[in-house]
Amino acid sequence: MWSDDKLLRQAAANGTRLVPLNDFFYDTLIPAPFKAFPDAAADATIAVTLVFAIVFSVASRWVAGVPDPLRHLRRSLAVLVAVYFARAISISSTQVPPSNPAFCRYFPIGAGEIIEDSLNELTSNLKSCSDMMFSGHTSMISVVLVRIWCDVNILNARFWRYLIRFCMLCLYLFALGVFVGIRLHYSMDAWIGLLLALSWSIGLEVSCDMVQHFEG
């Protein structure tokens, strides 16, 4: 909300209007149906995959009798904390012209409005226009992808491992198209969020497994 307000006041002081940056991928590669999805499609995709990842990660290890079934889930939580901390610094330091200026609004007045707007943003009833670089939506679903991709190794049946990974990968690519298509983010926001979240998640998974292996 602070960065939105800063962006609007700067534009008003300069007598300019907020114009989205050129996005080659949005203009040429995103299919038209993706641009017609409602904003709720992005949040629904994340909610479904996140719930599945949590339930599958805990339940599969609990059924298999693995000690501390929450251990692997805590790895993903640690990555999300680091990613969103880095994202907060990025958004606060530099405001990129919004991909959808309609989401912009001034900082709310009074404690009541601040609390109300904060809750509405957390539940996605309100969108922010200045949280461009980098995409939190992409970061979240990238961490979920890695969590599911690693957790299916606990399944003995190779068919189910491949099927779940294939379905998750298709849903992941669909979600990326929706994030950019409905102008929640530029394609560069999704690309940087993807690189950070995937590399940090995979790096932590490999590091933890190596330590666990060598320590027996």
Distance between the termini: 48 Å
Structural class: mainly alpha
Shape type: elongated
Strand tally: 0
Largest sheet: none
Mean pLDDT: 89
Q: Gyration radius, to the nearest Å? A: 19 Å
Low-confidence stretches: none
Order of helices and strands: HHHHHHHHH
Question: DSSP strand (E) fraction?
Answer: under 5%
SS field, number of helical segments: 9
The percentage helix is: 55-70%
Characterization of this structure:
GO terms for molecular function: ceramide cholinephosphotransferase activity; sphingomyelin synthase activity. About 70% of the residues lie in helices and about 0% in strands. The chain is mainly α and about 220 residues long. The radius of gyration is 19 Å and the shape is elongated. The model has no long low-confidence stretch (mean pLDDT about 90).
Summarize this structure briefly.
This protein has 216 residues and is mostly helical. It has nine helices and no strands.
Task: Record keyword descriptors for this entry.
single chain; mainly alpha; 9 helices; 69% helix
